[in-house]
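Quick one, tokens below. Sequence please?
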């Protein structure tokens, strides 16, 4: 059966447009969407320039107040880790078949939108051995939202078609992020992680923790949790940006279990939700400084958080990591187009997708997509693919005694 390029019946993209990174404002926007998809196409009304106005009715303000206090006041979910002496220490084999290993990465996918469903279909077409989500389930990662926007379980209070994160034949994983933690992480740790993990006899075994490592003789893929410390004290966090530092348990795991060595001949890929650096938005350098104690680089680092595709030039700063940064936060949110005046012009971008995405909601946004990684021995090919299956940027890396060299690349000329 041929699936449509962009399915219908899911959440409207406009309900997530211009969504703030602030928990208090995100909870407010959560009250605004209607209970069913809007009319699309020629009969569609142009979206209001004030997307959150519907949330200001008295009943919705009261619901917002109760939900915000109910989910934000209290202890965050305990941080799961790997018990000493346990056979599962969070390091798993990176393996495939036929001489290649296929891995799909997407970030900010958990929106439940038509576009997220299209990206999921393109990932399934790729038949990945591993499918890894780099975090953010919207609006605030409650169990109900996790069910509808990530696990494919319909919300009985709405009429939207749910979305399910696609599975890898060898393993399916999900990282933690700030939106999961806006509800203190309970939807993520208690709902998402039990449905993830390595696959045995056709069934996922559960993901033990929010950080892990996949490795073979040529590569190491290290996934880090920058989400757990991405929230602070309610209200105060609106004025003071949390650092998204790695929890102490993750740092100890890197030091005692993963134990990266400067003379390790394998190529290193890092996965996280928050960006080490950004040309367009806030930077989160603390996790890189923590990891620099163990990792000497160079690294190929994939992250999300910002809703765009951006291929960064090499970045190297004392006290940090020599990094080739890749922002792939265009999985399911309305995609931001490059601004005329970037916030941090000192960070060079090699490529960003400037195309306007033609959509039935009359939105001025870019194309959603994801990254396809194919490991073949000491070679890694990364294709950045949009929701229609078009490869907009492609690069191939070779590892030689721990050093990463890009041996070829290409991009879509129309971008």
């Amino acid at each position: 059966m041929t699936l449509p390029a962009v399915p219908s019946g899911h959440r409207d993209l406009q309900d997530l447009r211009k969504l703030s990174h602030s928990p208090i404002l995100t909870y407010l926007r959560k009250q605004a969407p209607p209970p069913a998809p809007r009319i699309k196409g020629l009969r569609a009304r142009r979206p209001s320039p004030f997307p959150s106005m519907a949330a200001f009715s008295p009943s919705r303000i009261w619901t917002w107040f109760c939900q915000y206090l109910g989910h934000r006041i209290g202890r965050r979910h305990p941080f799961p880790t790997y018990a000493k002496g346990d056979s599962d220490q969070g390091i798993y084999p990176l393996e495939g078949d036929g001489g290649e290993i296929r891995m799909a990465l997407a970030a900010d996918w958990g929106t439940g939108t038509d576009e997220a469903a299209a990206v999921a279909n393109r990932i399934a077409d790729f038949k990945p051995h591993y499918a890894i989500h780099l975090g953010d389930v919207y609006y605030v990662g409650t169990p109900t939202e996790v069910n509808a926007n990530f696990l494919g379980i319909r919300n009985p209070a709405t009429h939207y078609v749910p979305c399910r994160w696609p599975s890898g034949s060898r393993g399916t994983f999900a990282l933690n992020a700030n939106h999961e933690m806006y509800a203190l992480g309970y939807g993520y740790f208690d709902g998402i992680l039990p449905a993830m993990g390595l696959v045995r006899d056709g069934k996922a075994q559960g993901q033990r923790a929010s950080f892990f490592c996949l490795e073979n003789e040529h590569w190491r893929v290290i996934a880090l949790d920058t989400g757990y410390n991405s929230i602070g004290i309610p209200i105060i966090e609106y004025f003071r940006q949390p650092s998204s530092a790695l929890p102490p348990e993750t740092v100890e795991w890197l030091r005692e279990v993963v134990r990266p060595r400067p003379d390790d001949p394998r190529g290193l890929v890092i996965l996280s939700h928050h960006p080490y650096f950004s040309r367009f938005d806030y930077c989160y350098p603390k996790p890189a400084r923590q990891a620099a104690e163990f990792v000497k680089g160079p690294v190929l680092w994939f992250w999300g958080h910002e809703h765009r595709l951006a291929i960064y030039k090499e970045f190297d700063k004392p006290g940090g990591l020599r990094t080739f940064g890749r922002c792939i936060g265009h999985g399911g949110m309305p995609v931001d187009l490059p601004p005329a005046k970037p916030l941090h012009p000192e960070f060079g971008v090699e490529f960003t997708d400037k195309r306007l995405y033609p959509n039935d909601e009359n939105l001025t946004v870019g194309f959603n997509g994801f990254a396809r990684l194919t490991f073949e021995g000491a070679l890694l090919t990364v294709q950045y693919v949009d929701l229609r299956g078009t490869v907009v940027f492609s690069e191939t890396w070779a590892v030689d005694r721990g050093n990463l060299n890009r041996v070829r690349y290409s991009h879509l000329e129309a971008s």
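The first strand starts at residue 91 and ends at 93. The mean pLDDT is 91.
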